[in-house]
Amino acid sequence: MSIAEVHDITVTRRPLVPPAPPRAPDDMGAFERMRVMRNSPIETWGQRAYEDDIVQGRFLGRSSFILNTPDAIRHVLVDNYENYTRTPAGIRVLRPMLGEGLLIAEGRAWKHQRRTLAPAFTPRAVTTLVPSMIAAVDETIAKLKAASGGPVDLREVMQRMTLEIAGRTMFSFGMDRHGAALRDFVMEYGDTLARPHMLDLVLPLSWPTPQDFRRARFRKRWTAFVGQLMAERRATGKDDNAPARDLFDLMGAARDPETGEAFTDAQLGDQVATMILAGHETTATALFWALYLLALDPETQEQLAAEVRSVTTSGALDIERLKFTRAVIDETMRLYPPAFLIARAAGGPDTIAGRPVRKHDVILIAPWLLHRHEKLWRDPNAFVPQRFMAETPPDRFAYLPFGVGARVCIGAHFALVEATLALARMIGTFRVALADKDPVLPIGVVTTQPNRSPVFTIKPR
Fold first, then answer.
1. Does domain 3-460 have CATH number 1.20.1250.20?
2. Cα Dmax for the chain
3. In the chain, where are the structural domains located?
4. Cα angle 210-213-219, degrees, rounded to a multiple of 5
5. What is the pLDDT of residues 291-337, one digit of tens each?
């Protein structure tokens, strides 16, 4: 049975098809592709990329392969993953914000970091952080209730809320004093330095581009800010006999199970930056998209609210019973994957699906394409949460909101718990609607972001 047949979901009404960017002409020229890519790589993909198993082409003198088959993706991300590393352009864009943290590291350094961090992100460890999540969500809801009830920018609200959760779960303190500065850093980098220029793509990593010099100046300020947060947390002290209070305690106490090594201060700073940025920004964006979809689809919104009522006892949510809410989160991340593109460079020759790959060839695995591929999903552009409640789940290599294989996102469970709880609390409390009817389109700038922040209205239930 094909994946499409497995997910032949029958619905009683016409499902919502949210607005999406126009697809590029399949014969788009290289210079036009570069121009469009500066705004959003999502807009450079034509219809073939949503239909073909593999799209082979050439870009800047190298062969490129877009992989849309689970077997080929498994080969690159699992079976032979050590042969495929981040591209120079990807490293240039991410390193100034994340340093040599888990998301960037390769080889032995990555293995050390992954082994050392793993205990801090087990389901049991995440459970200890749930009260901090709930407290931040409930405070956000209380502020919304106390407001006048007028129009609200829920994207900004979700960013503030997830940043507060990041601060409390990382450092055991809120982000009232530091939140504005952190958001400014994120916005500055996204607006000016996260979009690759031509020289970022063509020059070797060892040759700095003009953007790299600007990124280096940014990194100096950014690392000083992260160091300030760490110093403030350390000033609160820690009882060596007490259990860990937060992720900072867990990461500081972590030791590589094979070598016994702890993180250096610089390494710990890069991990803190990675967890705060990767955690709060991607979860905030996923929650925004979920609220946007539910505002466009009131019937699904009411179904979610009914589930929340049914699993709430004395004000407490049973997250294990929030099956439909979790399906909404899953479907949201299918339509708007947090990471829209995984780019890898071949470290040596290989063969993928019978096609020869040479050293330095570029392999593209695009969750944006994969999650909307016409051979893998029925009604691929429609919002159908029920597809994630089917007896047979999607193929593990056709649905990649957190990646897959050895480098699967270490914070996936944390993010899913946070997003499910937050969405349940929000929709259980408010009826959400859009105040304007102009479409919101996704653009790809590191993550799948909206091209604008629409105005919402919320009414207490």
1. no
2. 65
3. 3-460
4. 140
5. 999 999 999 999 999 999 999 888 788 899 999 999 999 999 999 99
Q: What is the pLDDT of residue 8?
A: 41
Q: 403 has which bridge partners?
A: 401
Q: Show the low-confidence residues of the chain (pLDDT under 70).
A: 1-12, 148, 239-241
Query: Which pTM value belongs to this model?
Result: 0.91
List the structure tokens of 76. 């690159």
CA distances to 178, 295, 328, 382, 420 from 138, rounded to whole Å, are: 20, 21, 21, 31, 14
3-class secondary structure for the chain?
CCHHHHCCCCCCCCCECCCCCCCECCCCCHHHHHHHHHHCHHHHCEHHHHCCCEEEEEECCEEEEEECCHHHHHHHHHHCHHHEEECHHHHHHHHHHHCCCCCCCCHHHHHHHHHHHHHHHCHHHHHCCHHHHHHHHHHHHHHHHHCCCCCECHHHHHHHHHHHHHHHHHHCCCCCCCHHHHHHHHHHHHHHCCCCCHHHHHCCCCCCCHHHHHHHHHHHHHHHHHHHHHHHHHHCCCCCCCCCCCHHHHHHHCCCCCCCCCCCHHHHHHHHHHHHHHHHHHHHHHHHHHHHHHHHCHHHHHHHHHHHHHCEECCEECHHHCHHHHHHHHHHHHHCCCCCCEEEEECCCEEECCEEECCCCEEEECHHHHCCCCCCCCCCCCECHHHHHCCCCCCCCCCCECECHHHCCCCHHHHHHHHHHHHHHHHHHEEEEECCCCCCCEEEECEEEECCCCCEEEEEC
